[in-house]
Please model this.
Amino acid sequence: MSLVASVKDVLFPARCLACDKQLDRYRLPLLCEDCRSRLSPITAPLCLCCGIPFPAGENHLCGDCLSGRWPFDLARAPFLYEEPLVSLIHKWKFGRQLTGLATMAHLSVRSTVISHLATPDLIFPVPLHKRRLQQRGFNQALLFANKCFPDWGDKIIHDGLRRVRATIPQITLTGAERRKNLIGAFSLRQPRLVKGKSVLLIDDVVTTGSTVCECSRVLRHCGAARVEIFTLARAL
Ligand SMILES: [Zn+2]
Ligand SMILES: [Zn+2]
Model:
């Protein structure tokens, strides 16, 4: 370790982002052992398509995927959307503590599920509506994409997908209402760009899947050959 790094550790001790306990060193991930062990990583066995984890057995297709429910080809998330991750995500989304994003990207790229992704031609972060982007000042999906895939930086199209219609916050709606709320909400800036291409869609969290599904439908409609989803977390 360099002298500068050692001095920095003494003067500005790093703290666990989840419980605020002092850490020995300022190194990613900024989580103490306890909080890190409380995360719920998703590992095999899981659904070969949507990535939902199974309690036991081999990897296979789940009932939803067998019935062709999803408009994407593959979805993976390194973690379940449970505490302490729920609070961490809230802190960076609404409290702008973006160090949490660097920590989770650091852990995400070390997850085994990331190796399931095909090498994409294009990467699209799920967009925010212009008004929401102005309020928040950043799109967490774009920041997460940049942090996780620096080697694919030239494939990340930050405004490739646009949210053309402001929608009611999904959190207030039921599953069916969420889907209806999003119809016509997204469009592609250059529809011809995706024709025949493998597209990786990035977001922070998947809960019911309605947002990533609607984006996938738009991509499919414009001729994308393959659509994969990568999110930091997914709900069960
Ligand atoms: Zn902690
Ligand atoms: Zn599935």
